[in-house]
């Protein structure tokens, strides 16, 4: 009865030695996985797991955030100066938006890779 509500309703069970268990746990730890069921499912169905380290993308995002805050402060001052700098200010805003789009694209690609 309760299995009718589950997406995966068939359970597979297998036994391993202590050495095999330690090896599996090492592999899981090396790629940052803690859920054995998910690890086993991916390894059995896909034969591999791609672990994407998004640390550099997160660092880039944090740096871009700090730059964005500074740019916005500068643009507020530029806006107060009048229409003479409006085109430059709009160009800077567009370039910041473009930069954020690139970072978001990197995150999306990293997510796609990790789900393969």
Keywords:
116 residues, mainly alpha, 2 domains, 0% strand
Written description of the protein model:
This protein is mostly helical. The protein folds into two domains: 2-46; 55-115. It has four helices and no strands. The chain has helices at residues 18-30, 36-46, 55-81, 86-115. Helix 3 runs antiparallel to helix 4.
Helix count from the secondary structure assignment = 4
Helix content: 55-70%
> First CA to last CA: what distance?
32 Å
Low-confidence stretches: none
The major sheet is characterized as: none
Tally of individual domains: 2
Q: Please give the oligomerization state of what you see.
A: single chain
In short, what is this structure?
The protein is mainly alpha-helical and 116 residues long. It has helices at 18-30, 36-46, 55-81, 86-115.
